[in-house]
Design goal:
globular, 25% helix, 20 strands, alpha+beta, 5-stranded antiparallel sheet, 4-stranded mixed sheet, Uridine Diphospho-n-acetylenolpyruvylglucosamine Reductase, domain 2, 4 domains
Length: 339
């Protein structure tokens, strides 16, 4: 374990924002993590845990210690005739875990294919896509409290999962570091066709009995067609969450906007597509200097090359202001802003 000073984080965040960290260390085990946390030299400095850098926006240099969590490893922990428990290190690339599970025909994770980031970040965000949510397959996780270095195991109920959120994004933000995650998957999987675009692709391809491998390939193709590749253009995927509003408020908006994109969460609440709101405000493909929204997906704010984190953040605030003014809906950030 080696701590370096004043390192550029440009290649460690998918926005490609060129900021520096005062101190930086990359860890590959729980022991190295404890060593970094116990170092008296950095005890008074703020600390930031960095995974794949795919859901973070730096607005300035980081005056503290960045810990790059690269704990590796995927292993099969337990199984019976129906279920299997798989454990992965927090530093494993999320899609590598998905591929591993699909290759072994372990179902329940395939619709979450091609989501950027690491395994450790998945529970923090309670990631979800195309009709599947992480919490549905989550079993438990291990981690360490930053201040005390005490280890702790969290089961599902203790994680306080909600839409794109968890206890690690709220009460335990910057207080707890995830070191490994365990998932409970199906050995005899049934494919999930609850998301309309996935179902349409299965029908279009005339796949009579789709497998989880078919679903994974379809999801990857859909994501590639809708979302820009961070390797080609800086971005962190969806910048905002899809807002949930009451059915009463939805009825009022639906009268004024008959084409309002939505789906019903339950009998009292409706989820509105943030991309639709942003596009209706005239933001699709709008550009200011080196930043703006993507030409095909207004939910994605991009860095065309040399935008600063502050410039990207200002664009996000302008979008939120316009949506609030026109629709009386407050968008919430999905991306973690580091001010």
């Amino acid at each position: 374990m080696k701590v370096v000073k004043n390192i550029s984080l440009k290649n460690l965040n998918t926005f490609g924002v060129d900021v520096k960290s005062k101190y930086f260390v990359e860890i590959y085990s729980e022991e190295e993590l404890k060593q970094a946390l116990n170092s008296g030299e950095y005890s008074n400095h703020q600390k930031l845990i960095l995974g794949g850098g795919s859901n973070i926006l730096f607005t300035k240099d980081y005056d503290g210690l960045v810990i790059k969590n690269s704990i590796p490893g995927i292993k099969l922990l337990d199984e019976d005739s129906k279920k299997v428990i798989v454990e992965a290190g927090a530093g494993v690339i999320w899609d590598e875990l998905v591929k591993y599970c699909v290759d072994y025909n372990f179902g329940g994770i395939e619709n979450l294919s091609y989501i950027p980031g690491t395994v450790g970040a998945a529970p923090i965000q309670n990631i979800g896509a195309y009709g599947q949510e992480l919490e549905e397959i989550f079993y438990e996780l291990n981690g360490i409290y930053i201040d005390s270095c005490e280890t702790k195991n969290f089961n599902k109920s203790e994680c306080s999962f909600s839409y794109r959120s968890s206890i690690f994004k709220n009460e335990l933000k910057n207080k707890f570091i995830i070191t490994s995650v365990k998932l409970k998957l199906n050995k005899n999987p049934n494919v999930n066709l609850s998301y309309n675009s996935v179902k349409k692709e299965v029908e279009k391809k005339n796949i009579k009995q789709p497998t989880i491998k078919d679903i994974r390939e379809i999801v990857i193709a859909i994501r590639k067609s809708k979302l820009p590749d961070p390797v080609e253009i800086g971005n962190a995927g969806s910048f905002f969450k899809n807002p949930v509003i009451t059915k009463e408020k939805f009825k009022v908006l639906k009268e004024e906007y008959p084409d309002l994109k939505h789906f019903f969460v339950d009998e009292n609440n409706v989820k509105i597509f943030a991309a639709w709101l942003i596009e209706k405000c005239g933001w699709k493909g709008k550009r200011f200097g080196d930043t703006g929204t993507h030409k095909l997906q207004p939910l994605v704010i991009v860095n065309y090359g040399n935008a600063s984190g502050k410039e990207i953040y200002e664009i996000s605030k302008m979008i939120k202001s316009d949506v609030k003014t026109i629709f009386y809906i407050t968008l919430k950030n999905e991306v973690n802003i580091i001010n």
